[in-house]
């Protein structure tokens, strides 16, 4: 039986957003260590390599989760509304509002970054004379903007097709067949141009995730918890096998940017599990569970702000992360993991709180939140 997710916030979905952004924070903190462990520049042991291999899955996982959740809500609603009168004007209005929210958010963080770089401390790459920090550096945000703009067309096409779910399955199969070729056989150069075909496959992979989110919004998995646990176990075992066998190339391929099929599968099953309990937050207001749900729903809208801040201000926080983890590494692998995790979560908390105090009030003042 098909269903369309409720307009009210689902605490489990919002919690998953926070889990995803925490995964991205961890991924970026440990990314240099994973690269060093797999390119031979650091003689890492199999246990720490195994742990870093699992962490390396989190970057693509988090991004896929965000696009899946967006598709989960936006696609079914647009498809359902496409049979009503005034569909296009209504969708244009809603799409314009969503686009303005994204653009206003980028503009705010860009202005803050320029002010900080001019009057507080220089931020490398942040300048009116450079565009990389706002173009390639924020490619995830621009992809999200493009997908939001496509929602009216996607919803209309979705409703016109006899079997949209089957079409999405075909797209998934094609995309990840190409992704497997890229990851294991033809990774290309480390730095890709925006129009290089492997780079475009990253965008295609996230578009596929967005469409799969639409499928999840209209169906319910029978046993998502078991499937998720099984997939997570497979990911851990496969990463461990590659680490203990010393197969660095396999480790890299398993988590190769957005092409990672493991990350995608984990993301799909995570969203399916969270979406299955759409009415989970029905506890009385006085219970601890309800208070935690309320806090989660307050924090989750700040994830866009965290992504913007983490990307734009990476020249400031990256040296701190590297210095802290390098100092911790002298105490052993466990110390490295603990220090990197603590730094990642602290950075996440500070940026989420800042966003809640600055960007969200501004958006409300502008009538965009």
UniProtKB/TrEMBL annotation:
Flavoprotein found in the keyword field: no
InterPro entries noted in UniProt: Acyl_transf_3_dom
Membrane-spanning intervals of the chain: 15-35, 47-75, 99-121, 133-154, 166-185, 197-216, 228-245, 251-274, 334-358
Signal peptide: none
Chain ranges of the Acyltransferase domain: 11-347
Keywords from the named record: Acyltransferase, Membrane, Transferase, Transmembrane, Transmembrane helix
Taxonomy, superkingdom: Bacteria
Gene Ontology molecular function: acyltransferase activity, transferring groups other than amino-acyl groups
Name the UniProt record assigns to this protein: Acyltransferase family protein
Organism: Thermophilibacter immobilis
């Amino acid at each position: 039986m098909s269903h369309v997710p409720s307009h009210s916030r689902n605490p489990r979905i919002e919690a998953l957003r926070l889990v995803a952004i925490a995964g991205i924070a961890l991924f970026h903190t440990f990314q240099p260590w994973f690269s060093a462990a797999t390119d031979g520049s650091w003689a890492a042991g199999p246990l720490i390599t195994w742990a870093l291999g699992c962490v390396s899955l989190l970057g693509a996982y988090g991004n896929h989760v965000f696009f899946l959740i967006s598709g989960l809500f936006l696609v079914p609603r647009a498809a359902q509304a496409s049979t009503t009168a005034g569909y296009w004007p209504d969708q244009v209005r809603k799409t314009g509002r969503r686009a303005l929210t994204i653009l206003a958010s980028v503009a705010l963080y860009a202005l803050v970054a320029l002010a900080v770089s001019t009057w507080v401390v220089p931020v490398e790459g942040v300048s009116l004379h450079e565009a990389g920090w706002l173009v390639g550096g924020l490619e995830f945000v621009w992809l999200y903007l493009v997908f939001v703009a496509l929602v009216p067309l996607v919803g209309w096409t979705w409703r016109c097709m006899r079997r949209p779910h089957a079409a999405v399955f075909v797209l998934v199969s094609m995309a990840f067949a190409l992704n497997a070729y890229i990851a294991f056989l033809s990774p290309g150069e480390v730095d890709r141009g925006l129009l290089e075909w492997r780079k475009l496959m990253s965008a295609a992979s996230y578009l596929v995730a967005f469409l799969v989110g639409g499928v999840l919004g209209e169906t319910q998995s029978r046993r998502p918890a078991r499937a998720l646990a099984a997939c997570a176990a497979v990911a851990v075992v496969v990463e461990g096998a590659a680490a203990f066998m010393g197969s660095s190339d396999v480790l890299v391929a398993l988590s190769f940017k957005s092409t990672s099929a493991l990350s995608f599968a984990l993301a799909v099953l995570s969203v399916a599990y969270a979406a299955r309990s759409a009415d989970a937050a029905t506890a009385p207001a006085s219970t601890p569970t309800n208070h935690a749900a309320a806090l989660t729903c307050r924090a989750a809208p700040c994830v866009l702000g965290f992504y913007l801040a983490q990307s734009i201000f990476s020249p400031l926080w990256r040296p701190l992360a590297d210095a802290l983890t390098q100092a911790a590494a002298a105490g052993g692998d466990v110390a490295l993991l603990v220090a990197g995790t603590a730094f990642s979560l602290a950075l996440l908390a500070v940026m989420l709180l800042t966003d809640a105090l600055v960007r969200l009030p501004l958006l409300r003042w502008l009538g965009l939140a």
